[in-house]
Structures are given as structure tokens and as C-alpha cells.
Amino acid sequence: MGKAKKVIVLLGITGMIGTLAGCGGNGAKDSKSEANAGNKDGEGKTEISILVHFDPETDNPAKVDSFQEAADKLGYKINLERVDDATYKTKIRVMLQANELPDLFYTWGGSYSEPFLSANALYPLEDAIQESGYTLYDTYAQADENGHNYVVPTGALESYCLFYNKAVFEEMGKEVPADWEALLDVVDACNAKGIGAMGLGDKDRWEGDLFYNMMVVREDADAFTDAMKDGGTFTSEPFAVAAEKVQTLIEKNAFQSGYMQATPSECVELLKAGKIAMYPTGSWQVSALQSDENLGCAVFPKTGKEDPYLSCCGNAADAGIAVSANSENKEAAAKLAVEYSKILNDHLAESGEQTYFETEIEEAGQTEMMKTYIENFKKLEKTQLWWFTYLDTAIGEPMRDLSQQQFAGEVDADDFLQQLESIIKGG
């Protein structure tokens, strides 16, 4: 993987998180399965409890299925419970407070893990990784200040990209924009051509929210971390400049017609059809776009002061499966976590996708787009996690509501910043 990337740690968020609510029977639980439950073959086996939020319908189905695959390999019995994302964030913290954590569970890393670390609730996994004989790439093997690795990955890091239609740019005689001025020039050219310069699927609010996150990172990669500190503010220059630039793009009709009610899947089809020139979104779309040779993938333009090889990520190098330090079977759970992570990794390798463990599995005919994406990914020097990742829904949901107002042009840049400050910092 080359040199390790520096992940920006978000500070002070744990103090901002509201009182945790109970998780009673509100119907939020999606599914629960007990592997080998009632099966005589499971009697006498080491039993490991697992809680995750992975959704097989929208996420990689292997993220759920591979637990059983790993358990079968090790001869364990597992009790697996999956709940939806919002329920999970509350439930796992309530379980922490009650000292009732499952043997295996997921953490988003960074400041999200701080309450677990402060409670000494995470079991170090470096011994289990070493004993497995598997080798993590440097990016994912960065130990904390005490020399410990507390998680194993459940997927390769995602990053923000700029997908584009090669034929559209060729017809316009333009290059894929590398900076702010070039981006505005492409917007003008697309307006003249009668197509959208950029796709945005903001029906569910998160694509606009992520776009603004990325614009802030381009102004100052440490802006969000600094804003969360005591004395920090969301009205500082990086946030203000990014908000003004978003407002400029909206006023220049940079996004396709109807973007406020569009979905990501609709943006994918528009890009393929040449109805939009570019689609800024996460690398999870590589799998949907890579088979079309007319489409390319680039880094998001240098719209501000920062180097373009910085990115927003939907996950972190220290996000993944963790083991409860209070587990009665913590050593066995650690072995299961590592085996599970490696199995997921090898499934990715079999599909020709990005991996995080070294593997002997040959890449299955990687596409030009996947190769380009991975080359760009390896150049990333710093990543900034989505703000929403660390925020409780009581903060994150109003923030996304505000983001939708921003992209609808219902609030100007100054009003947006004041409301953002109020929502996140309670000011």
C-alpha cells in the first residue's frame, strides 16, 4: 500500500453527544439469527456473540455471511444479531454503559471509539493478527499511542472521487477539472451544451452533506477537528469559503435539473447517458461504473488551498470489528475477528477489488477504473471522515436537514454557518 495515511482524529465529539436513549422493543431490529442454535453439532463449541449493523441489501452481503464462514473454519458457534444503523449507534453505547457488550461488535473508530477506550472495553488484537500469519497493509496496521491495534477492517477505505464521462469532455474539448477555476469553466461549458455539469442525488440529503464536507477539506483538512475543540467554530474561514463556493455552484446551475429529488442510482444512469459530465461521490460507485469504458475516475478537484490528494472517507483506518475486553472468550473472539476480516479481504480480492490484507489470491482482471482508483487512493496523504459518522442522530439528522436547505438555495452561506454552529455545538 505504500506510505501510511494520516487519519484526522475528531476531538471533543464525545462531550457533545446527547443522553443515550433506551433501545426497547420499538421494532427497529431488522434481523437476528443464532448460528447453530439448537444444533447438536454446536454443543460444546466455543460460543461467540456478535452485534453488527451491516445491511445485506445495500452493503456487501459477505459482511454478514462471512461470520459463519469464519466460525465454521475455527469450529466455533456464533450468535449473530444485526440491527439498523441508527439503532446500532445507540444500542452499542447502552451496552457499554451496562457492561454488557457482545464478544464482537463494530466501531467507526476515531473519537467514536473514545468511550470504549476510556472504559478499557476493547481487547488488543495485534497478537491475534500476528499469530494468524496474515499481514495488514501499513494503512490499517497503525497502532495507537500504547502500541495496540483494537480493530480489524471489514472493508477497504472508501474515498471521495470524481467520476466523469470521457465522451462528453471530448465533445466539449475540455479536460477533467483539476482546480476551482477549471471546474467553473466546465460548468459554463456544460450549461452551453444543455447538460448538467455535476450529478447530485440529494433526495436523501447525504450526498449534498458529503459534497460540502469535501469542499471544507479542500480549504483546510483540519478544519472540522479544530472546530470541534473548545474555542473552535464552524463559522471560521474554511467553512465560510466552502459554503460560499457551494452557493456559487448552485447559482451557476452546476448540478443537474431536479437534483434535489434525485437518487444516486439516477445519477449513475445520467452519467452513463452523457446527461451529466461528472458525478462527485464515493468510491463505492466504482463497482457500478467500472464496466463502462467511456467512464473515468479522478480525484476531486483542488477547489481550495489544500493538496488534491486528501479526501473525505466513509470509514476510517481504525474502524472495524472490535472485541470486548470483558468477553469470557476474548482470545477466541480475537481469532474469529481476524479470520473473519481476512475472509472478507479475500472475497474482495476474488472480485478484483481493493484489499487491506496481503493475499495470494490473484486479482480477477481489475478494470482500468479500479486500477486508476487504487493508484489515486495510494497517493492520499490524509483522510477526513464524514462528520455524520461520529454524530448521534440527534445532531446528524438536523445537520443533514440543514444541508438539504443549503443545496435547495433556501439559506445563504452566512445563515447556513450560524445554523451549523448551533446544531453541532449547541451554541
TrEMBL record:
Superkingdom: Bacteria
Signal peptide: 1-21
Species of the source: Blautia hominis
Pfam families, per the entry: SBP_bac_8
SUPFAM superfamilies linked to this entry: Periplasmic binding protein-like II (SSF53850)
UniProt keywords, alphabetically: Signal
Name the UniProt record assigns to this protein: Extracellular solute-binding protein
PROSITE patterns listed in its UniProt record: PROKAR_LIPOPROTEIN
PANTHER family: ARABINOSE-BINDING PROTEIN-RELATED (PTHR43649), BLR3389 PROTEIN (PTHR43649:SF14)
